[in-house]
Amino acid sequence: MMDNIDKVLWHDKANNFDPSLCVHIMTNGLYYSTIEGEPFRYEIIDVGGTRAMRKKWSRCMQDLDSVIFVADLNGYCQTIEEEPGVNQMEESLEVLERITAHTSLQNTPILLLLNKADLFERTINRHPISDVYPEYVGGIDYWKACRFMADCYARRDRRPPGKLYCYVVDSLDTTAFQNAWRQVQEKITHTTLKY
User: Fold this and answer.
1) Bridge partners, residue 110, by sequence
2) How far is CA 161 from the centre of its chain?
3) pLDDT, tens only, 64-88
4) d(CA 75, CA 94)
5) Beta pairing class for 67-72 and 41-46
6) Phi and psi dihedrals of 164, rounded to 5?
7) pTM for this entry
8) Could you give the CA distance from residue 126 to residue 81 in angstroms, rounded to a whole number?
9) I need a surface site. Which of 7, 14, 54, 80 has the fewest CB within 10 A?
10) How far apart are CA 22 and CA 134, in angstroms?
11) Measured distance CA(161)–CA(8) in Å, rounded
């Protein structure tokens, strides 16, 4: 389902680690920023992912060239802050499904960033994915686990195939994340010019 999952980004943590990226700041509001790039200028709207923030998303759903959806690879064994009994990944999957069902996003490419790859390899050793998803049979194989996670999201896309693009990233590694951003820019540019 996710052919481009093989473009997974991996890195040398020792040479590319920026400790300032360890700080987590929750998005509380709508934040607009601009990234100057070639050949376009990118207008970014950070809408945050909490339930409270999702109520504000409808203001931003029109006339988008693409959506960047960030999901925590480790969410399968975590719960959400708003409701501790709810699995984080299941909530994320439901949100993606609702987004892909939105009429204004039927032709809009969604770039799925499966984040925190640096933690994921350790997490699958401590918390088997099969404990949460019995259909998963890949054990602790990192690449099989990444493919399984990408496929879970792809199955929730309610649109015709070919509009969801998956990247596995580690935002703590600036070089790998810059490589991912370049790929995302290329995808945005290609799909924007296509429509």
Assistant:
1) 67, 164
2) 17
3) 888 888 899 999 999 988 889 999 9
4) 13
5) unpaired
6) -115, 125
7) 0.78
8) 22
9) 14
10) 32
11) 20
